[in-house]
Amino acid sequence: MKVRYGFLDGMRAIVCLFVFFGHYFVDFCIKDIFPMNSPVYRVCLLVFYGCYTVPLFCAASGFLAVRKEIGKGWQLVLAVLNRFLRFELPLLAVIAAVMLLNRRGMFVYGDLLAEKLSNKQLAGNYSFDSHYTWLFRKAFWDLHIYDNPLWMTGSLFAGNIALYGFRYVQALSRRYLRGRLCPAAQAAVMILLLVLARNDIPLLATVLGGCYGLARELKDRRDGNRQSKVPRGGAALNARPLILFALVLVLNIWLYFLRDFDFERFPRSYELAGLVTALALLHLAFSCRPLRGLLEAKPLAALGSLSFAIYVIHYPLIGLLSCPMIYALRDRLAYVPLVLLAFAATSAACLLLAFAYKRVIERPCYAAIKKLIAFLGEN
Question: In this structure, how many other beta carbons lie within 10 angstroms of the beta carbon of residue 102?
Answer without folding.
Answer: 20
